[in-house]
Amino acid sequence: MHIEVRDLVKTFGDVAAVNKASFQIQNGHLVGLLGPSGGGKTSILRMLAGLEQPTAGEIYFDGKLVNPIPVQDRGIGFVFQHYALFKHMTVFENVAYGLKVKKQKRQAINERVYELLQLIGLEGTENKYPHQLSGGQRQRVAFARALAPKPRLLLLDEPFAAIDAKVRKELRLWLRNLINQFGTTTIFVTHDQDEAMEVADDLIIVQKGRVEQQGAPWDIYNHPASAFVASFIGESNKLKAPVALQGFPELSAYRAGGEWQEGTQVFIRPEAIELRATHHPQTAEAGEPGKITHVHFRGDAWYVEVELAGGMTLFTYQPLHQEALQAGDSVSVFIQQLFVFAPSDIRILENRSRKGQRRLYVYPTTEKRSGSK
Amino acid sequence: MRSLFILLTVLLFVLILVLPFLGILAGAGAEGFAAIYEALMRPESLHALQVSFIIVLIVTLCNGVLGILFSLQMVRGPWLAGWLRPLLNAIVDLPFAVSPVIGGLMIILLFGPNTLLGAFFENVGFKIVFALPGMVMATIFVTFPLMIRELVPVLTELGQTAEEASATLGAGPIRTFFRVTWPSIRWAVYYGLALTAARAIGEFGAVLVVSGNIVKQTQTATTLVYQDSIDQNLVAANSVALLLGLISIVILLFLEWMKKRKEDQLHAH
Questions:
Q1: CA distances, A229 to each of A39, A206, A212, A220, A236 (Å)
Q2: Which end of chain B has fewer CB within 10 Å, C or N?
Q3: In B, which residues are within 8 Å of A71 by CB distance?
């Protein structure tokens, strides 16, 4: 189902939970609404479902205005954070509920319920009650219950938040496959970016009730449209004060004395930082001199903190197969790329001292990129 | 020291609970079982018990329906903004704080024969004061908070997500109430109904004021006990009191059993 949301507003008292959010979702897409807690994601989801009435703005399903349509007639499936299973009903009765509401024949109901139970791997539990199931099993029953009446839009509110870490990982891959199999347009809310990146075709980054950016995870990670997105998605070093970095002559344009210009923020992704021991023969390229201050084993990489000569500290990850660094080592710090967010423009600067790879992206400011049109 | 406290507790218990009940038992049985039977089979006794029964039935039904509707609004009513909810909350408890006699008096002041409303209803042939409607109203006034105080905490703890889930699955409000909400609040409702019935049977003050205590018309079991004791007809007074006491004990035991069911249901999540 094609979804369009136009200038959606929801206020609770004086607080605007959602403030002119607009976006479109293509039929069959699996979209993650991602943002910090309290950013308005759940309110948007609940308004799409009809569980909450918008203060202003319109919601269209397949071009049809659905604002006046009550929840029960919107043809959606909703999975709640804490499952919200009917605790006095068995697994079978839970899954069959939506079908019974639709007054389907008993035979058809039985077939559909057993088909779904098989799909979620819970055959044999049909006569159990929700309190006899584990958290992960309950959540799967909740999915089955929502999917049973074949909704055209599936809405998931933090579907994995109440499940422990290991099960969560399995469950989200399982869910992704399940949804791909059904081809149902799906929107899920999460504050966990790993989850969002792993599951979604498309991300909508929501903050303070607004859509900051919409796009594929790759685009959002590599071309963040705002300082917020750059700092929220993935990890970043924020350069608090300007320093002259070799290979980035453009940076001086954003300086105002010892500070950045008003409203300017500069970020470096940890993977854009290369560290080389100074005695290394390959240290031909220019880099900043620095000193390792902290090394920490993370399992799949070393977490390394390095202090530049100017006093600035950066963190990065050093692959295990590379030479192990130790605190106190002198290194050459080579920065490949950085993000600049200024009121006038947003730029991804590439290090100019590395010849042949010189690239420069310039694209318009937040307003034009973050919108849906 | 500890045994002293235990002794004090037992003494108090005997003094204010066991002795009076034994007193009633002895008073009723003073002239044998036949006298008890005879006292209960007097026409005025039968009539009074019947009036009490009718009042209890109507009040319990009214309180059941009103209490559920009121509690739902209390917990979920979106129109209850800010200060309105605490205010309503306080007003619900008013009958607990106000003497039942005052409750009865308020009904007389509102619907008495000399008032505008009372005269109006009397003209259309609907007598309120010194008749059953007034007694029912007085008893509803006294028992009103019981149901709501039972239901509100249960509804609050229950939350709304199961109902929302029901709505997203296509169910309308009526189906949602009966299939999803009702099974979860059922025992609390039964408990509230039993409490209401127990309280309604024993109601005296408000009913006495409103009913006028007219023999074989508006006399209830409790006002009959009062009448009999004034008339020095102690065996009769004690017999009716004994019956009322036994009914209360049965309801109490029933409540105990129900409380267990209610707790079991709450904890089976």
A1: 13, 9, 7, 8, 10
A2: N
A3: 164, 167-168
Q: Is residue B207 part of a domain?
A: yes
B184: distance to nearest CA of chain A, Å?
Answer: 8
Which helix (DSSP H) or strand (DSSP E) does residue B176 occupy?
helix B173-176
A50: how many CB neighbours lie within 10 A of its CB? 23
How far apart are the C-alpha atoms of B192 and A57, rounded to whole Å? 44
In a domain, B119, yes or no: yes
Q: What is the pTM of this model?
A: 0.80
ipTM over 0.85: no
In chain B, the number of structural domains is 1
- The fold of A236-370 is OB fold (Dihydrolipoamide Acetyltransferase, E2P) (2.40.50)
Within 142-161 of B, beta carbons closer than 8 Å to A belong to 161
**pLDDT tens digits in sequence order for chain A, 373 residues long:** 899 999 999 998 888 899 999 999 999 899 999 998 888 999 999 999 999 999 999 999 999 999 999 999 999 999 998 889 999 999 999 999 999 999 999 999 999 999 999 988 888 898 999 999 988 899 899 999 999 999 999 999 988 887 788 888 888 888 888 888 888 999 999 988 888 888 899 999 999 999 999 999 999 998 999 889 988 888 889 888 887 787 788 888 888 877 888 888 899 999 888 888 776 555 455 678 888 999 988 888 889 999 888 788 899 998 888 777 888 888 888 888 889 998 888 888 888 776 544 444 444 444 333 333 3
Containing B159, the helix (H) or strand (E) segment is: none
Asked if A149 reaches chain B (Cβ–Cβ under 8 Å), the answer is yes
- A52: nearest CA partner in chain B: B164
CA distances from A369 to A2, A196, B14 (A): 21, 20, 82
Whether residue B168 and residue A72 make contact (CB cut-off 8 A), yes or no, is: yes
Q: Do B269 and A87 touch (CB under 8 A)?
A: yes
Of chain A residues 73-112, which have a CB less than 8 A from chain B? 73, 75-78, 80, 82, 84-88, 97-98, 101-102
Domain range for residue B254? Answer: 31-267
CB contacts, 8 Å: A97 with chain B: 166, 169, 171, 179
**Domain CATH number, residue B225:** 1.10.3720.10
Give the residue extent of every domain in chain A.
Answer: 3-228, 236-370
Residues of A with CB below 8 A from B184's CB?
Answer: 87-88
In CATH, what class is A3-228? Answer: alpha beta
Instruction: Dig out the tokens for B60 from the structure.
Output: 């319990």
Domain-embedded: residue B120: yes
CA distance A259 to A239: 10
Question: Scanning every residue of chain B, which has its alpha carbon at the shortest distance from the alpha carbon of A84?
Answer: B162
Residues B241, B25: Cα–Cα separation, whole Å: 9
Q: How far is B75 from chain A (nearest CA, A)?
A: 17
Enumerate the residues of chain B whose CB falls inside 8 A of the CB of residue A84.
161-162, 164-165
